[in-house]
Amino acid sequence: DTGVSQDPRHKITKRGQNVTFRCDPISEHNRLYWYRQTLGQGPEFLTYFQNEAQLEKSRLLSDRFSAERPKGSFSTLEIQRTEQGDSAMYLCASSFSGQLAGYEQYFGPGTRLTVT
Amino acid sequence: GESVGLHLPTLSVQEGDNSIINCAYSNSASDYFIWYKQESGKGPQFIIDIRSNMDKRQGQRVTVLLNKTVKHLSLQIAATQPGDSAVYFCAEGRAQKLVFGQGTRLTINP
Hints:
The structure holds 2 protein chains of 2 kinds. By secondary structure, chain A is an all-beta fold. Chain A is built from no helices and 11 strands. In chain A, the strands form 2 sheets. In chain A, strands 2, 4, 5, 6, 9, 10 and 11 form a 7-stranded mixed sheet that branches. In chain A, strands 1-3-8-7 form a 4-stranded antiparallel sheet, with no helix packed on it. Chain A is globular, with a radius of gyration of 14 Å. Chain B has strands at residues 10-14, 19-24, 32-38, 45-51, 56-58, 62-67, 72-77, 86-94, 97-100, 104-109. The A-B interface holds A 4, 31, 33, 35, 38-45, 48, 50, 55-56, 59, 87, 91, 93, 95, 102-110 and B 3-8, 31-32, 34, 36, 41-46, 49, 51, 89, 91, 93, 95-103.
């Protein structure tokens, strides 16, 4: 399978705990994006990386959210001190930037977070 | 407490008919637009995109129309099949950021 992969697929945690999600993009893609999707809504942009540089993070929901892509390959999204309102699907996407690149972002299956 | 999702607009079509899904976007400065299909429990799947300087683009069984005057986007699916059942989202792109619309749930009647 050469698509975007995310781990874990489901996470149940208690309020106040920290959680970390991992995303592995399509191997030749240099851009990586994180989105959040709540029930009945479209995905909401959070942040993105080009290689290891985080170029846009103003949409991260609070200072409890942070993302890294240390080697320009996989990325992690961490939520500290989780709250019930953090319950959502967290989606990762990747794309290629280059002369012949299109606009499409390819999404992974998501990590569903439930905070109890 | 109970979590209740917002009611998605829905479209029901007969198998074999054509489907037209509409979307209004908000920012006239958007550079491009993309249609995504999302099946239950899966991430969004790319269908087709269109640059802001175009008004029509065709793919396999799909056509996207862009009307910048009224900031309207549509997706036409020809000969709708059961496998087309999903939620369809339009997204407007500005730089590297996608802004998604609310989505339309397409159901296929046999």
